[in-house]
Design brief:
Helix content is 25%, strand content 29%. It is α/β, with parallel strands linked by helices. The longest helix is centred in the middle third of the chain and has 19 residues, at 260-278.
Amino acid sequence: MKKVLTIIMLFVAVCVEAQIRGTNITVTVTPDHKDWTYKTGENIGFTISVMKSGTLLDDVKVSYEMGPDMYPDTKKEITLKAGTAKITGKMQVPGFYKLKATAHVGGKDYQAHCIAAVSPEKIQPQAQCPKDFDEFWANAIKEARNTALEPHMEYLPERSSADVSTYHVSFHNDRWGRRVYGILNVPAKAGKYPAILKVPGAGVRPYGGDEGLCKKGVIVLEIGIHGIPVTKEQLYYDNLFSAALADYWLNGCNNRDRSYYKHVVTGCIRAIDFLEAYGNGDAVQWDGKNLGVCGSSQGGFLTLATTALDKRVSCYAPVHAAMCDHEAALKKVACGWPHLFYQVEKPDQAEVECMRYYDGVNFAKRIIVPGWYSFGYNDDVVAPTSMYATYNVAGGEKVISPYQQTGHFWYEEQYEEWFGFLLSKLKK
């Protein structure tokens, strides 16, 4: 009986903890244009509201700052007598304008922000492109291919089903011993199929593949970038991320040949080499002509780079792509993650020149196949300014689908549209 009571008490404790969700005090900042979009010189109207239990809270002290995204030029404090107030700003140049509000209630701070677009179709990037950009990447890929793929596949019965066969795979990247690891999902039924390469966002983690996407009739290869197996427990990756791979995105950022991302980009190209090699004589094969690439954040950048560098890609879809328009920060314009030059008084010129080879803008300009772009205006990680700057100069047929309210995440509808686009292009 005592054992039963202990189990019940533990269950109740877990349930109580699981019920903690959100805060009773909420702050909202909303624009007065439904599409969150304005023209240069036009008044941008924001409404700040502070609520308790879903109703406006009287006599609330609020601090707010506003101005061009990442570069606020106005800071004020006000008291919201009836829990709400309207604030107006203005921009004379294309970009994004942000209002961030902090409500001070009961000794605690509660925040919200809103970022509105100002003539976004006119935003142009600040990124400069090296004259030997194409030559550099052509040579990098050629050198990588001097190393034989030597692919390895391990069947994962626990991740497979009657419809999908799943494998933990690896293959050589740009030198012997440096391998790319990933999860490969293939339809169980023999045939030739279109394929999707999923490239990862920043961080260090395991990967599960995408059985659901594979069931829609596509081969799916989801890769990691760190040269380590992708099927271990999370703690394994957490330990690496806090030590050996901490801030890996800064490694070699002042030398184009030693940049961490050089082998990351070539690894994405080798992943397509693997897909092509996998189809030689196997019952299930990539059809050799329909290939989509997709990823978010860091994966958005890798999507742009892979699509620009490999003519085997037939469509692509980046979501809030990072590493775009690094040099914008040198002109005090919002830049993409990892914000290398943000508020840097005297940037290292070697870093500036190196990162031109790793700027999503310079890859986007070289793309010629159909693409779908999406991001949130409220993103504090990947500035929407950098996203529009990239989209506006991207080559080929393209579609933009912003979900204004999202930050550095996506909504269910956005996710469905994302992969709906890829599948529609791959199955034409």
